[in-house]
Amino acid sequence: MRTWIEALSLRGKLMAGIVVCLLLPSFVSFFVSNWFTQGVMKEQVTRNSQESLKIVDQYVANQLDRMLYILNLLQFDPDLHLFVAELGQMDSVRQPYEIVQTKLKLNKRLDAILASFDPLYLTILLPNGDYWANYSSFDFDPKQLFGKPWYQETSDLAHYQTRWVGGEPNYVPNPDGVRHPYVLTIAKPIRSGDQLRAVAVVSLDAAALQKLFSSSKKEETLLITDREGRIVFDKEMERIGTLFPFRDRLPSEGQASLIEVDGEANLLIAEALNPHWQLVSMSPYKQASKPIQAIRRIDFLIQTMCLIVFAGVLLYLTGALTTPIRRLAQTVIRIESGHLGERSGIRGRDEVGRLGIVFDRMLDRIETMVHSIIREQEHKRKAELAMLQAQINPHFLF
C-alpha cells in the first residue's frame, strides 16, 4: 500500500487525498447518523401510525358511544323506562291491546332517535318472554336471543354494568337485502332497583366498520380485541371470536412494540376504545417506515450528487493547478537527457508561473554559459595548437 502511494505522482497523491477526504467523512457521517437516527425514526413511524389509528379509533368509539347512549336512555329516561317496565309485566293473552299501545309509544320515542344514527338494531328482551325490536322479525325471531349464552350473564349484571358481547352472526338484512356476516353487539340489563325489567341488546351493522377496516393498507392488520385478547371484529371475518396470537405482546396505550413475524419486523400499536375493548394495529415496520426511508434516500442521493460535483470540481482545479508543475517536471527530464534548448513556457503571476519564468531564465543563462565555455575551450585549443606549431617550426629551419 505504501509503495503504491509512493509511486503516485504529486498530482495523483493530491487527487487521491481529495477523494479520500471527501468520501470517507461523508460515508462515516452517513452510517453514524443512520445508527443514531434509528430510534428517532422509530418514534416518527410510531407517531404516524398512532395518528392514523386515532382516526379509526374516533370513528369506532363514536359508534360505541351511540350504542351506549341508547342503552342508558332506556335505563334513565323515565318515560322509556316506564314503557319497558309495563311491557315486561303485561300478559300477551289478557292484555294484547295494551301491549300494542305501549309498543307504539316505544316506537314513537325510539324510532326518531335511532333514525339519526347509523344502522343500529335495538332489541328489548322482556322477562315475560316478549320482546320489542326496531327491525322486521320476518327473517329472524328475536326470541332466539334468549338462548344466547351471554343473555343470562347480562341478566345478572347491575344496572350500571354493560355486557360487551362483541361480534355476533348478523340476524338483520340491510334494506337492499344484503346481509353482512356480523354485527357488533352490546347488552345491558334494565332494572328498577334489584328487579330486572328487561335486557336491552344493541347491534351495529358491521358493514360500515368493514368498509373502514378494509380501507387500511393490505399488509396492515386492523382489529378490535377484548381484555382477554379475543378478536371482537376483524376485516378477516374468519378470525372473529379467535384469540389474537400476539395478545401477550400488546403494548400499553400510547406505546408501540416491534415483534418478529415470519422473520419480518412488525409494528404493534393498541388504542383503548373503552375499558373493555381496544383497537389494535399491526403493520410491517418496513412498510410503515417507507415514506421516511424514501425521504432519507432522496436526501442521501442529493448529498451524493453534490459530493460528486464537488469532487469533480476539485479534481479539475487540482489538475489545472498541477499541470504547470507536471510540465516543469517533464522539461527537467528532457533537459537531463541532453535537450538544453527545452523550455517550460510556464507563465503567470502565481508562484508556479514565477517559478517557470525564473527556471526558463536560468536555463537561458546556463545555455549561454555552456556556449561561452565551449567557445573558450575551442579558442584555448586553437591557441595551444598555434603555440605548439610555433615551437615545432624553428627545428625544421635548422
Characterise the protein shown here.
By secondary structure, the chain is an alpha+beta fold. The protein folds into 3 domains: 2-36 and 290-329; 39-288, Beta-Lactamase; 340-392. It has 10 helices and 10 strands. The strands form 2 sheets. A 5-stranded antiparallel sheet has the order 2-1-5-4-3, with helices on both faces. Helix 2 (10-36) runs antiparallel to helix 9 (290-336), helix 3 (38-76) crosses helix 4 (78-89) and helix 4 packs antiparallel against helix 5 (96-115). The longest helix has 47 residues, at 290-336. It is rod-shaped and about 185 Å long. The two termini are 82 Å apart. The mean pLDDT is 80. It is found in: Cell membrane.
